[in-house]
Design goal:
The complex is a heterodimer of chains A (about 500) and B (about 90). Chain A is mainly alpha-helical and about 500 residues long. Helix content of chain A is about 60%, strand content about 0%. Chain A has a two-stranded antiparallel sheet with strand order 1-2. Chain B is globular. Classes of the chains: A mainly alpha (about 500), B alpha+beta (about 90).
């Protein structure tokens, strides 16, 4: 018997393709009941390619190696009081957002890929989706583990799981993944595998994590980069699914285009919060949101869409709009959270003069004109003891669930964009033409949305009795885990540890 | 030609991989950013097992690239002795 080592291609063929079987006494359609209803036509699953040719044995080997490195660093981080090494305790609020709003999305992605992996008829695609499902589970576990150290020293981390199903801004991420997971397997793959993983997650896991490292957060950069080493594989899966669907049948092209148009927009809207984390929450700046967007979306995504042109796929027609919004996104988001931070699970602050100067430099077209005066006014009011909080509840977009904060950046950036449409006698509101179109394509889906503000008014969030009841329902410790960083228990502890109290 | 991109964690292993990339892709541009190294090139980037092994002074499996890889763009072509990302337009 030969003991010659198999090469990569043979090993992949034997350990992936050869594991599949034919259906002799059962109808194949009963085994894969969701394969056809979306209108996608698959003629030959054998055309599926995994360019990494990763088999399960190699997968476990490299994942184990990543985990060993990761946990060695976690140990070192917590044994050495790693939280004391961050540049400033304000920064920790960015990772409170990460734990409450991003990490639960990893779990949703885990469940989505488990479902999708089960329901795609081709073995190559099933194995790749299975690996990604396992990765996503690893991501939420390692993220919770990393942040458990911060939870010992800072407020706002402990109820992330409870908050996920309730809190207003967290519903944005929850509804995004719920939307994807309640779609069919191919739409899910285009939504999460392609639009989110290939085109958008780099923005969170590469420049933001590099920023976390620059700000001394050893735990976060470590889980972030460890997760991102899986993402490189996820991106490849996302690109493969697109190429595969487009090559299988020309009828797939318009369906895929419609999904790309929908999901790039949905994913892009979610990144609003990442824009704010980069521009406002990193005490030491690495790269502005705008710069990161230009590199990872405009350059990298541009190359991708140029490549997909040969299939008849084009960049969504809102490309000019998102190009213009990069000058505004982070500023509008931080202002929204600053003025509503009595109802968030993290602290906000007015940027320092040095930070305002940095923003002016990075956003010469917009910051001084539209946003700097607002911060100067906020500071003036706060200095007089009149710190401004928005006491009303915002109108939410029926599709993305984000408050109507976006302005008409292509015409007059001072005007809020309001869109609405009627469906079955009821009026529904939207933050943009894109969110309105998404609703109009599937109104029966979005009329069911659980919109936090509507639920509060209906008395479903702790019952009638004002915002205090709502905060109890959220398990939000008002004044401790939120509002201004200045004067918070977090700040007080930080000053004591640093000997500047 | 569109640009391809590969990024690695900035660590001892990845530094040898990056040196090998620089040797085999002299046109590539390398950016050192906090905790990471980003490499860009027009059209394509190739990592050769032989060059990495020469730099590291030990055996290196191409698939172990996953351990330190952060992100990439382009189509992938991988085999036992090389790893390439490329755009064809």
């Amino acid at each position: 018997m030969s003991t010659k080592k198999l090469n990569l291609k043979d090993k992949y063929r034997l350990l992936t393709r050869d594991l599949d079987w034919d259906f002799s006494y059962e109808d194949r359609k009963d085994a894969f009941p969701f394969e056809e209803f979306e209108g996608i036509k698959i003629t030959d699953w054998d055309k599926w390619e995994d360019p990494f040719r990763l088999t399960m044995d190699a997968y476990w080997k490299y994942q184990a190696e990543k985990e060993k490195k990761l946990y060695a660093i976690y140990d070192a981080f917590s044994q050495n009081n790693g939280h004391l090494n961050v540049t400033d305790a304000r920064y920790v609020n960015a990772i409170k957002i990460f734990l409450t709003a991003v990490s639960p999305g990893e779990l949703a992605a885990h469940s989505g890929f488990a479902f999708t992996g089960r329901h795609m008829g081709g073995i190559g695609a099933r194995i790749a989706a299975q690996m990604q499902s396992l990765d996503e589970l690893r991501h939420i576990q390692t993220q919770i583990h990393a942040m458990s150290h911060y939870n010992k020293f800072f407020d706002g981390f402990d109820e992330f799981s409870h908050m996920h199903d309730r809190v207003w801004y967290i519903s944005v991420v929850k509804s995004f993944f719920d939307d994807a997971r309640s779609a069919g397997p191919f739409e899910f793959m285009v939504a999460i595998g392609f639009s989110f993983e290939y085109v958008l997650t780099n923005l969170l896991f590469v420049p933001f994590m590099s920023g976390a490292a620059y700000n001394g957060d050893m735990a976060t950069v470590t889980f972030g980069f460890s997760a991102q080493s899986d993402e490189a594989r996820h991106m490849t899966l996302g690109l493969e699914i697109i190429k595969f669907l487009l090559e299988q049948h020309e009828d797939n092209v318009p369906i895929v285009q419609k999904w790309i148009d929908k999901w790039l927009w949905r994913g892009y809207r979610i990144l609003t919060v990442v824009a704010m984390m980069m521009d406002y929450m990193l005490p030491q700046k690495v790269m502005s949101w705008k710069e990161a967007w230009e590199l990872y979306f405009e350059q990298a995504g541009g190359a991708l869409f140029k490549d997909l042109e040969r299939y008849g796929i084009k960049m969504p027609d809102y490309t000019d709009l998102i190009k213009a919004e990069k000058e505004h996104l982070s500023h509008q988001a931080w202002w929204t959270f600053y003025t509503n931070s009595q109802a968030t699970a993290f602290h906000t602050w007015i940027p320092s003069n040095q930070e305002l100067d940095w923003l002016s430099e990075k956003y010469p077209e917009t910051f001084d004109k539209y946003y700097r005066p607002r911060w100067e006014m906020a500071k003036e009011m706060a200095d007089k003891g009149e710190r401004y909080y928005n006491e009303g509840l915002p109108q939410l977009c029926q599709t993305c669930q984000i408050p109507m904060i976006y302005t008409d950046v292509q015409n007059d950036p001072r005007d809020i964009v309001y869109r609405s449409t009627k469906y079955q006698g009821e009026r529904f509101h939207f933050c943009s033409d894109q969110c309105q179109h998404i609703f109009e394509n599937e109104p029966e889906k979005y009329v069911h949305s659980w919109l936090p503000v509507h639920q509060i008014f209906q008395g479903n969030c702790g019952g009638p009795g004002g915002l205090e009841k709502v905060m109890d329902y959220y398990k939000l410790d008002v004044g401790k885990a939120n509002m201004d960083y200045v004067g918070s228990p977090d700040e007080e502890r930080w000053k004591t540890w640093k000997g500047v109290a | 030609m569109s640009k391809v991109l590969i990024a690695f964690q900035d660590n001892d292993e990845a530094r040898y991989i990056v040196q090998a990339i620089e040797e085999d892709n002299p046109e590539a541009t390398v950016y050192f950013e906090p905790a990471m190294i980003r490499i860009e090139n027009e059209g394509s980037l190739t990592i050769n097992k032989a060059t990495v092994e020469e730099r590291m002074g030990c055996e290196w499996e191409v698939q172990s690239i996953h351990v330190n890889l952060l992100t990439l763009t382009g189509h992938i072509d991988e085999d036992d002795d090389y790893f390439t990302v490329h755009w064809d337009n």
